[in-house]
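Table S5 (text form). Sequence records supplied for joint modeling of the two-component complex.
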Amino acid sequence: MAAEMVPYGRVTQRPPAVKDVHIVWITAGLGCDGDSVSITAATQPSVEDVVMGAIPGLPKVHLHNPVLAYEVGDDFLKYYYQAEQGLIDPFVLVVEGSIPNEHLSGDGYWAAVGQDGMTGQPIKTTEWIDRLAPKALAVVAIGTCATYGGIHAMAGNPTGCMGLADYLGWDWKSKAGIPIVNVPGCPVQPDNFMETVLYLLYVAAGLAPMIPLDQEGRPTWLFAKTVHEGCDRGSYYEEGEFAHEYGSPKCLVKLGCWGPVVNCNVPKRGWMAGLGGCPNVGGICIGCTMPGFPDKFMPFMDEPPGAKISSSTIGVYGAAVRKLRSITNSTVNKEPKWRHNRPELTTGYHEPVRQLKERAS
Amino acid sequence: MSTQTVTHTPAKPRTLVDMNWDPITRIVGSLGIYTKIDFANREVAECYSTSSIFRGYSVFMKGKDPRDAHFITSRICGICGDNHATCATYAQNMAFNVRPPAMAEWIVNLGEAAEYMFDHNIFKDNLVGVDFCEQMVKETNPSVWEKAKNTEAPHAADHGYRTIADIMTALNPFSGEFYRETLHVSRYTREMFCLMEGRHVHPSTLYPGGVGTVPTIQLFTDYITRLMRYCEFMKKVVPLHDDLFNFIYQALPGYEKVGQRRILLGCWGSFQDPAVCDYTYEHMNEWGNAMYVTPGVVVDGKLVTTDLVDINLGIRILLGSSYYEDWEESETFVGKDPLGNPVDKRHPWNQTTIPRPQKRDFDGKYTWVMSPRWYHDGEKSDNKYLALDTGGGPIARFWATALAGKVDIGYVKATGNSVKIYLPKTAMKPEVEFEWKVPKWSNAIERDRARTYFQAYAAACALYFAEQAMAELYAGRTHTWSEFKVPDEAIGCGFHEAVRGVLSHHVVIRDGKIANYHPYPPTPWNANPRDVFGTPGPYEDAVQNTPIFEENGPDNFKGIDIMRAVRSFDPCLPCGVHMYLGNGKVLETHHSPMFGMVK
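The corresponding structure-token record, covering 960 residues in total, follows.
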């Protein structure tokens, strides 16, 4: 079928299916607000790219995030109430921080924001989620606390906290049929999150198909590969060269790096602007994007049990390969012998036959 | 009451209006501020600061491997998590008896300097700055906006904004030019941070014993080129803020009262000198005094100590209005410090955290924040438990450093009553010297002003640290980590300056595991409630009796003066201050509250 004809100079791309989208953000889980802070570091796209209309085809975006909001107190919370009453529609609900188990907090609360006008008591975070999630176009859990529970859900915690999908149910779907979108990371890698939001805005605008998610609710294009697959120290692993002290540029698995079994693109993408990261810059991967974080990776500074077998197996092969490569490497480190300043040409060049004949005659 | 603001008899009968703000936005964490406002006398009569989130680090860290402490505690804070990670490694180094190589210390200092440069920058001009932007000033004080339009900015040649109104317009969220520029600066300063500590905000390359960062020529090139761009930026920002803040004093006479409280400042010191710092408790006074930000406690403008041992032993954690059970009956972990000094039962080493969630009651318990105090034997009033504040960090750091007069490294110099900052020539601007002078007040404007100057201070220190690191590199001393063994039994403490003020971590190790761990970040010092003696926390204290300059009445009151008072402390709890703005409902009349007095 022929492509749709587009007249030259069309003012803009196809108008979005909806004119306005609100992003209603709850930071009142058990968290550190590190994900809200993190997204201010994003440049692909940046938060101002999204709210100022710098990306073609998007609806007008109204961001209601407590860390950045102009409004304070009830002036800010009015967006929560409006979302609940269907007055701002559609909206994407972003939840940050792990969800405490309020069955365990008696008359009190573990996490709350705002005040109930009738009782004078704080409004629990779980109550806000109950009110807002059913009304949202999509629900996004940002950071490992909101996605899977994270650090505050480690063994021995008093709050019984959990991830958003543990709270709403793993088969929960928004009214638009979109499952919970999980963007883990402790904190979230800035561009990973903003790009996910951008994708959802494309979906809302009618420009993109359903967001591709894996079984753990993660965008597949961001989390399908392991840290190791994107790590520029992976080649040290292949050659069996392992760091035995921090500060070494070699592979860190023996010092506690879990990269080979962790879904995350940070070594490939860098932390921001292509800079920083984890094992690529000397930091062991502690699995901070994973549902099993942190307990299944602790103590962080011990060698992962699986790495013992694989690293000793690779040792023999790696040593041999390294030896062979060092021979080849020293060969390719020498210039060809015809590059010299002697009064003779040894490059193998021969004048064309015709010229030789002419000279002979 | 040592920390109480002066209680005066109001000129007109009090008519109190209940107003609260929950959540306080443009801070990190959950904070609510509940007040009673006296519109007849135009002042805040009562203030309660409340935080509505509990997470329980001290509970779930028990029994964990002590080497994990810095990875875990970084997650306490989403904007200065690296300060926690750094402070935790300081405590680990003491407990494990390990001294990192000099290169590691310079790398950490460079990372932490970048954190100050980034964090103060984004907080001041993307979060607090909005309180001074065109839109806000027009909505709260239209007459001030009119005046700003006709006031030339004295340093227009340095920063490029002709009038004060131009500065305010540039601070409008997203649409303002300077707002967007600072967002951009917040990014390349975080890149500098990532070069040294791997990732922001929870670093990947910090360890007890040193760092995993590989010191290469490229590492420092990448850092220094960005640092010089920042130095150039600061040559514009310091005069810009001076113009703005001086204008506020001039346009609103009496504004020095906003957020003012007694001068009670704490600073726990920042930036180790690897030549002196061996992390032993026995030498803590010596290496503490070698820090490039001097630790100290300032009471009524006098420096009462710079000794980290004194500072450590004076820390007390009080309850009173917090949702916890007392630990008097619990175990005493540390009876004496390694020097033989007795350690109080209410000291973090001996604290046991027992959470008790319950209904909020402003006459009883109303927050998850505890009340840290500093016990000062020399205090003249009856109450020796001082509610020190951090003033959001910079004002306390400068005040302690200036009075101590110890720091002198070419780029910065403490003179005894000021701190001088030298920034060399940059691409478009000549060399510049700034001087932070001890101010008359501990108030909202001076807290905000110190923040700007401290950005320049951090940049100047970074120039020195980079030189030191590169000298190590050129000399071939590139090791960044020292080996250690985790002892079965040990104690440790770390002292640092988080971006917004004092930070301490206290650890007790038994059987090779964490037996007790209590971090005390700045915001508990600032945002705490009335303690068991009735002494209000610093936010409460600073907001109470704050005069109201806002031109709006109760019906459309924004509480801007209160917001400026609270935000001047750079609130960063995952915690908050609620101020509820009701509909102007009169609560009671002819009320003369006895603020903070024991009933």
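Note: The first strand of chain B starts at residue 15 and ends at 21.
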